[in-house]
Write a structure and sequence with these properties.
This is DNA polymerase (Family 10). One of its GO terms (biological process) is DNA repair. It holds the Pfam family DNA_pol_B_thumb. By secondary structure, the protein is of the alpha/beta class. The protein folds into 4 domains: about 60 residues; about 100 residues, Beta Polymerase, domain 2; about 70 residues, DNA polymerase, thumb domain (Beta Polymerase, domain 3, 2-Layer Sandwich), CATH 3.30.210.10; about 240 residues, TIM Barrel. It has a 7-stranded parallel beta sheet with strand order 11-12-13-14-15-16-17. α11 packs parallel to α12 and α16 packs across α17. It is elongated. It starts with about 25 loop residues before the first helix and ends with a helix. The N terminus is likely disordered. The chain binds 2'-deoxyguanosine-5'-triphosphate (DGT), calcium ion and zinc ion (ZN).
């Protein structure tokens, strides 16, 4: 640990001395030459590339300071939740092999399940305080490319894809508080800090204290904190907004849906369209690897209007015969006959109603004209009595395509009225609906379906992401259609048929 005793360094800048290569005298020079006296001023100066004007800094120093302050425009890119999750888990697994590490948890946006991640945060409970030894080991771990900063309480590592990982160290007494604090979100933390202050407490990464006596009250665990604040435990996914805090205080937080509650995956593509696997192979694999699923729905693209990697009308009965054959092998109707049709430019579908009627499950999706307002197309699809679900409703591809404009109030109201479900598509670059649209949808009474849209077997794991988004949107199992058994799904379909027939009388 370098000395923080040098009183010419402003307090808020002392942590910068943990950056590799940054000495007290270099930092003093920076403060003097850039005329900065606190963290905010330094961040602003660094973001404006003013570190380039300080000759005492090496290019490496500048890069490290900018990354540490999170103002490095070249390096600070957000990555997909799924990619960060795989990395985060790898780091956790490596850290847990160390004898000093008693507990390790993801924190930050990665624990909250944000759809993109700026950097990975991990909180570790360590035995003893021989952090130098720990640092030595972490530096040599396979995930670590180099270490930018190392202090007693936190280590900042550059991963091989240039993503940053912050590893926060806490002892047993303070693990809960550190985990709580570094899980965030920042705005949620501020709301809780404010609330705690009203109750006479002070809360920070080191614990919950009595404001008057400064007595340490909690926390070994996050549960301790919520107990002291007299509120329900708030799942990390929901730690974003005030309305959740209000519900937790009123003890009215709904139980969130879990993966175990799902009874099937309702959008899967086989080699009859653009998927990679045969129906038999997929069915056998899912049957064994996801033993609690009661059904799967094969929903190959089908169209009378286009060719190439789609199921053409003439092949539909052949595919049905193949599904029957596979179900005979498995001994029951495990594989359902679904389809994903295109919503055409005028809102009509890529297969006629006579053909749609024959399927167990029909998904209608927009696959063209992503820039225009697509409200009318979605409304028209909801009105079709044979459409059960709208696929990837907003059409966004994270990082490359914005969601198209839609009047969601209109669409969700009609979807609820006609018993048309909306999809939560779990592909890592879709996550569509996103959390805020999910919340809006369930508030309007829309039922949702969590699907992987898998085109091969590895993509079946995306289901975890879909469940995560549903939880972040505040869904209970009652909001999610594929927590129902197939008999109940049939009832949902019949509700649509009868509601639409009533309208036409
Ligand atoms: P990211 O990394 O941009 O995806 O988003 P987060 O939420 O992971 O944010 P990050 O990495 O800057 O910080 C991790 C958590 O640490 C954050 O969610 C809340 C906590 N935190 C960081 N800075 C502050 C702060 O200035 N005040 C408070 N109350 N909490 C903070
Ligand atoms: Ca983070
Ligand atoms: Zn699609």
């Amino acid at each position: 640990m370098k000395s923080h005793m040098n009183n010419t360094i402003p307090d808020s800048l002392a942590d910068l001395l943990d950056i590799r290569g940054i000495t007290t005298s270099k930092l003093n020079t920076v403060c003097r030459e850039l005329e900065v006296g606190n963290l905010r001023q330094l961040s602003t100066a660094a973001a404006m590339e003013q570190l380039e004007n300080v000759p005492a800094l090496s290019p490496e120093d500048r890069k490290n300071i900018k990354r540490y302050l999170k103002v490095d425009k070249d390096a600070d890119q957000r990555i997909l939740l799924w990619d960060a999750l795989l990395q985060g888990r790898e780091i956790l697994r490596a850290l847990r092999t160390l004898p000093e590490v008693e507990k390790a948890s993801l924190a930050g946006s990665l624990r909250r399940g944000k759809d993109t991640i700026g950097d990975v945060d991990i909180v570790v409970q360590v035995k003893g305080r021989d952090y130098k030894k720990l640092l030595y080991k972490i530096e040599r771990m396979p995930f670590s490319e180099r270490i930018i900063t190392a202090g007693r309480n936190r280590i900042c590592v550059v991963l091989h894809n240039q993503l940053l990982a912050f590893i926060y160290l806490a002892d047993e007494q303070h693990f809960g508080a550190a985990l709580w604090y570094y899980t965030g979100s920042k705005s949620y933390n501020a709301l809780i800090e404010h609330m705690a202050a009203d109750k006479g407490y002070r809360i920070d990464p080191l614990g919950l204290y009595d404001r008057k006596t400064n007595k340490y009250l909690a926390t070994k665990t996050e549960e301790d904190i919520f107990n002291y604040l007299e509120m329900d435990f708030i799942p990390p996914e929901l730690r974003e907004e005030q309305y959740v805090i209000d519900k937790a205080i009123a003890h009215k937080l709904p139980p969130l849906v879990t993966f175990d509650q799902l009874k099937g995956d309702m959008q899967l593509h086989s080699d009859w369209s653009d998927g990679e696997g045969s129906i038999e192979h997929m069915a056998r694999y899912i049957f064994n690897v996801f033993p609690h699923y009661q059904y799967i729905v094969i929903t190959d693209h089908a169209s009378a209007n286009r060719t190439g990697h789609v199921l053409e009308p003439g092949s539909i009965y052949l595919q049905a015969a193949e599904i029957n054959r596979v179900n005979d092998i498995l001994g029951f109707d495990y594989v359902k006959k679904g389809v994903e049709v295109d919503i055409l430019e005028n809102g009509e579908l890529s297969l006629p109603d006579e053909l749609l009627q024959g399927f167990d499950w029909v998904i209608a999706s927009v696959h063209s004209q992503f820039a225009r307002d697509n409200t009318s197309r979605l409304l028209k699809a909801c009105e079709n009595p044979y459409v059960h679900c709208i696929g990837h409703p907003s059409g966004r591809i994270i990082g490359s395509r914005n969601p198209y404009p839609v009047n969601w109030d209109l669409v969700f109201d009609l979807a609820a009225a006609t018993s048309t479900a909306m999809e939560i598509n779990a592909r890592p670059n879709r996550l569509d609906l996103n959390d805020s649209l999910i919340r809006k949808a369930i508030t309007a009474g829309v039922k949702l379906v969590i699907n992987t849209d898998a085109h091969n077997l590895t993509q079946l794991d995306f289901i975890q992401l879909g469940v995560w988004m549903a939880r972040k949107g505040g869904c209970s199992n009652t909001d999610i259609l594929n927590t129902l058994n197939w008999k109940e799904i049939e009832k949902f379909k019949n509700r649509k048929l009868s509601s639409i027939k009533k309208d036409h009388r």
